[in-house]
Amino acid sequence: MVEFRVLPDTAAAAALDLPAAARFEHAARFEHASGRPWIVGSWDRESVVSAACGRDRLVLFGPADTTPGELERVLARVRSVRDLDALCGRLAGSFHLVASIGGHVRVQGSLSAARQVFHTSLGGVTVAADSPASLPGDHRVDEELLAARLVAPWPPWPISETPLWTGVETVPAGCYLEIGAAGRGRPVRWWTPPEPHLPLADGARRVRRALHDAVAVRARDVKTVSADLSGGMDSTSLCFLAADEADRLVTTRWEAADRADEDRHWARLAAEDLPAAEHLVLSRATAPTWFDGIADPGPEPDLEGPFAWIRTRARLTHLARRVAAAGSATHLTGHGGDELFLGNPLNLHTLARTRGGGAVRHLRAYRAMYRWRLLPAARALLNRDSFGGWLAASAGTLTDPVRDVGGAPAFGWGIAYRLPPWATGDAAAAARSLLRRVGASGVEPLAPLRGQHALLQDARLCGDTIRRVDRLTSREGVAWHAPFVDDRVIEAALAVRLRDITMPDRYKPALSAAMAGIVPARILGRATKSEYSAEAYDSLRRHRAELLELCGDGMRLARLGLVDAAALRAVLAAPPPSSLTLMPLISTFACETWLRAVERGRVPNPSTGGPRCP
What we know:
25 helices, six-stranded antiparallel sheet
């Protein structure tokens, strides 16, 4: 597990190092050439690659396809932190990069937010870290932002990744944090999305190479690798790649609540073609279900913010313990594959402008699938809203009824965001105000094309969650990796021509073509995806009493005036017939359990004497 704080090369910054020992037990450190503290934290030697050349320093935390010797050669050529762009643009893996060159510091995470950079300013000095918990200062919960976190299934970017702690910021996507010689930081853009220009065959080769390298860098010098084998194309692809790279492969699969679940069939087929691997099936008789232990924050709660996968927290811990007992400290998950490779109807908006009549075939296919009427579909394709305008307009529909997907499409910059019916009027007013203010601020999308923006937003949401899962499972000695959201894999997915991946009659065409010859054809032929309604309803029945207790008289969200606890209890007592309407429960309970953990976990800040985040 890696935790660190980054300081500029100034006397004022050095003074902030004094309380570090209170945060980092068994603290490790790197120093600037001046001898002042540069990086302070705790980490395993195996998770770090570092080099020095003269007065310049470079450190990478996390799996990275490089060596100290290569980093030394890079440092010998660079003259500024900007000169590291080329290195960052070619390395496989998922890592934080921290450099000290010519008195300037560069701190960078990943495109997906699986490696995020947080920073704050204290006494005019910018301090960066891998989590808010590692930052000094007196930080409080922003209740307006908390109201927006009730939006289901998640709030839109950039609100989705704005820290809930006042005075804490994140580095924008595609940027690094540069801290100058005076100690003040600013974000600098180093990456922009590639044009979707590659034909499917060429794009598939690039995806194949990127995924191979992403798995290989994690399997290097590791005796045992474990990996999900759910039966889906994403996890299955990683298992076959890992089987070629790892000395020993252990796969894991959850026993489903639904006896008609297709995943078990496809997972068994894959297991037959992986005879050298060991296959763990996690039985429902002994494994936790969704919402198990949801009210218990545990001995070391993660106080960064609400945890998107709060419903499966106990299952993740259970799985980590099982694979650790099997000898694995490196686990691969297929999360991120849907975000990158499922066809996105928003691409029709771009195709209609770039290919004109060439997009008719795509539009006809989607109309047949979703029963779109022609005139509403044509009207939606003519939408020219800016990202900021769309975001502000979304504020006005937060409490509208959920619309059926049939009839008329929406080709805005994202999905239809909704507040749950148990959100109060105050919560709705706060969320609307925030969306309108951010929309009017001149905020730019993650990419100029709507489909690419949506892909990047989803990849960053996935990466953000994977970062939090890794923090959880690392306490059990298991690092959690999602190769699909590595930088090089994301770039490869973005570079494939839109007309080749947007037809709805082909399931994940870029991934399927990339894995041809690696994954058996009979498995790549799967064109369906399981859903988990049975798991949701069964788990709600099992844990209804525990969930009702969370929304009783002591409900923290109700005390803040953000949730009507009685309305929430009514939904739990009589769950709606569609599992889609249950999604807001997840974000609500994520916020509630986080607030309770914050209440228990706040401790005096050794540098200020006030409450510390977290």
